[in-house]
Specification:
By secondary structure, the protein is α/β, with parallel strands linked by helices. It has eleven helices and seven strands. The protein has one domain: Rossmann fold. Helix 2 (about 45-60) links the parallel strand 2 (about 40-45) and strand 3 (about 65-70). Helix 3 runs parallel beside helix 4 and helix 4 (about 115-140) runs parallel beside helix 6. The model has no long low-confidence stretch (mean pLDDT about 95). The structure holds NADPH dihydro-nicotinamide-adenine-dinucleotide phosphate. NADPH dihydro-nicotinamide-adenine-dinucleotide phosphate binds near residues 22, 43 and 127.
């Protein structure tokens, strides 16, 4: 049976997607635009954002505004400006996906480079916190709004040798739950999605194939790598009107991977660091 998703339902809504220039963020932005929303994407690289806006327009037949703001989510002024740009279209903000994230660390904790650790924690936790900090007051004033953090399977299932990424994503979970409790009284909802392995540039070194990919697939009951549309569909549900009694949830979209253990990165990290380093002998 072929199933098609009906389009529409977000007409007149204003959405902001951080990290919307590529991968999962671009998938979410495209889905929201397809469903009629005004969409603002942000990221650090203007060329990438320009290309993404063109891609969204080409994939949709919307009359709504599709725009970008160059912004680094770890810099507060730049988050303030991106949020203001997103809210300027309709005077308010209905949905935000805090998708900007990633990692500079891969390797044993005993070899951790502190600068890379701090930047990874900052990007994921501080970036999400600043996005919520500046988007939520606009939503609170309107009495409604939905914010979606992008966490990871690396939060629900510990990934050995994955450095600051898992702790950073666990921090996102906690920030989202903190905000959900504080903002509920103003009708603002905050949830997080924990994607499993999704086919994007970020994880190209895994999805290209090999033992680590095989291990991911063995850990997933549904046995396939995710597509950005899998995550966008859940984000669409969370920012839309069908989820208005849902807040504070950390939802895995991972082919069922959370039922197993974290993936085994030994075949990638052992050739770099040596077997002894993987058990703390540096
Ligand atoms: P991408 O690398 O394609 O997306 C990351 C985006 O974030 C890029 O567009 C990047 O643009 C932007 N970005 C990075 N740093 C900043 C910053 N400081 N300020 C603003 N924007 C920034 O990877 P994915 O789409 O895979 O990742 C998206 C999110 O999903 C991340 O949070 C990632 O951790 C999470 N995730 C991904 C999984 C996967 O398997 N792909 C699994 C679980 C979670 P630019 O560099 O131009 O700023």
């Amino acid at each position: 049976m072929t199933m098609t998703t009906p389009t529409g339902g977000l007409e007149g809504a204003a959405m902001l997607v951080t990290g919307g220039g590529s991968g999962i963020g671009l998938g979410c932005a495209t889905r929201f635009a397809r469903d009629g929303a005004h969409v603002t994407i942000c990221g650090r690289t203007e060329d990438r954002l320009v290309a993404a806006v063109e891609q969204i327009r080409a994939a949709t037949s919307t009359d709504a505004t599709i725009q970008y703001a160059v912004a680094d989510v770890t810099e507060e002024d730049s988050v303030v400006a991106a949020v203001a740009a997103a809210a300027s279209i309709t005077g308010t903000l209905d949905g935000v996906v805090a998708c900007a994230g990633g990692s500079e660390t891969l390797g044993p904790i005993t070899t951790m480079e502190v600068g890379a650790w701090r930047r990874t924690i900052d990007l994921n936790i501080t970036g999400t916190m600043l996005t919520i900090k500046h988007a939520a007051p606009i939503m609170a004033k309107a009495g409604s709004g939905s914010i979606v953090g992008i966490s990871s399977i690396a939060s629900s299932n510990v990934h050995p040798w994955f450095g600051a990424y898992g702790p950073g994503k666990a921090g996102i979970d906690h920030v989202c739950q903190l905000a959900a409790i504080e903002l509920g009284a103003s009708g603002v909802r905050v949830n997080a999605i924990r994607p499993g392995l999704v086919d994007t540039e970020l994880v190209g070194f895994v999805t290209a194939g090999g033992e680590v990919l095989d291990d991911y697939l063995a850990c997933m009951p549904l046995g396939r790598v995710g597509a950005v549309e899998d995550i966008a569909a859940l984000a669409r549900f969370l920012v839309g009107p069908d989820s208005t009694w849902i807040t504070g949830q950390l939802i895995n979209a991972d082919g069922g991977h959370q039922l197993s253990r974290g993936p085994d990165y030994r075949s990638i990290v052992e050739p770099i660091y040596g077997a002894d380093a993987l058990r703390g002998l540096t």
